Give the backbone structure.
Amino acid sequence: MVAVDYFDEVIEPYHLALGEIIKGNPEGYKKLCSHREDVTLANPFGPPALGWDEVARTLERAASHYTDGQLTDFENASKYVSAELAYLVEMERFEAKVGGAEDPAPVALRVTSIFRPEDGTWKVVHRHADPITTAQPAESVIQE
């Protein structure tokens, strides 16, 4: 079983892999993910992906939306670690050229990442990211 104390050593490589995604490269992040069929990913660009093949394609598509990214901050809101499961709730902040834009823009995402031990190391089994980082009015959930 993966030691609970070891989890903190996973956070920096996880953040560095996210830094590569915003430069257009998903490969490092893909290595940190579970490749099992119950892995999930919900990012700001589309509906949730389920299963390794779909998650891998979604990561590649997400990375293709970014270029010239630079991480600026990770604000930890919560962290929980047990022998079977760990999660992080963070605000991720970075600057990147998004969607073919010529100039970098600031981006902030509210992110929940869930990890579990697999084959002696912690693997990402779920990530949910969205741009809601401040309080929103109740009406903001209404779709027109």
